[in-house]
Amino acid sequence: MSEHQYYEVDFEAKFEGENCPVVVLEGPIPARLKGLSLIGEDLKQVNEILGELVTDETASVSKQKGLLFGALALYGKCFTQAKGRGTQLNAESFFKKAPIEIQERHKWMMRLRHQFVAHGGDAQEEQLKLLLVLSPNESKKKVINLIGHGASVHNLEEHLIKQCRETVDFAIQKVSKQINELQNKLLELFEGEGLDWAYQNSIKRSDL
Question: Which of 6, 65, 189, 191 could form a disulfide with 154 if both were Cys (CB 3.0 to 4.6 A apart)?
Answer without folding.
Answer: 65
